[in-house]
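Supplementary Text 2. Reproducibility record for the structural model of the 301-residue chain.

All settings were left at their defaults, and a single model was retained for analysis rather than an ensemble. We include the record here because the model underlies the residue-level annotations in Supplementary Table 4.
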Amino acid sequence: MEEKFSIQDSIGKLWTKLDGWLDAIILKLPNILLAILIMVLFYFVARGVRNLLKKYLLKHIGQVSIQDIIAKTVYVAVLLIGFFVALGVMDLDKVLTSILAGAGVLGLAIGLALQGTLSNTVGGFMLSFMPSIRINDFIKNGDASGVVQEITLRNIVIKTPQNNITVIPNSSFVDGAFTNYSLESRGRIFVKCGVGYESNLQEVEDLTVKIITENFEQKNSEEVEFFYTEFGDSSINFTVRFWVDMTSFKQEHAARHKAVKLIKSAFDSKDINIPFPIRTLDFGKNNLTVHTEKQIGKESK
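Retained model, structure tokens:
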């Protein structure tokens, strides 16, 4: 004969189960407290090791980004060690084995699902150890340009000249091209201009080279270079190139600003014309009639 379902028996079994769990928790309470204590201890140890590395051991590494990456890696590693020790104290060896096994499967799944993110992470490691980009360098990547504030495992943070913060994924640096203005202390400036067709071209060249050479020091093998480039619509155009101290956009703009003012002033003193575009209208045999307001009024009557 089948046994009848009894609510009282079910509640009794439930309380027995809960009672057993409560006894287990009470018995494990010292282990739980010890595990918590271990995690807190390893947290402070991880912070101490990280600060010690950044303050003493990593200061000999020139790249600040490398210092940060190593310090963060050591910090996480110490925390993981503390987590595994805490699990061992709580006699959760089987749980630890399951976690490690699950982590492998989960890691594979995450790797397939987050290929773009992992690409940025690998790019972050590569950029951290590349001497071509450093903290406080002035860089340009596509339309974004500014001073490097931070290099993380996922992106690079730059501050633009407009004082805005721009976040650029690491993959765009690793897979694409970028310009670093801070690696070299000297840079070349290009200034373009045009003079009228009636101008003495040799005089224009000599005057431009002279005024630039006198105001911008050219070091070692550097020199001012002048080239006529084309016959324009209303002027003969040229480009002058010269070297200046330049590690940012601001210095580039300042040097070009100064050069334009000097060239304009020198040309004005020698009556050299810098023409603006002129459009000539030729009506040929057609007659052009100009009507005044009075004539229009008479015609309307």
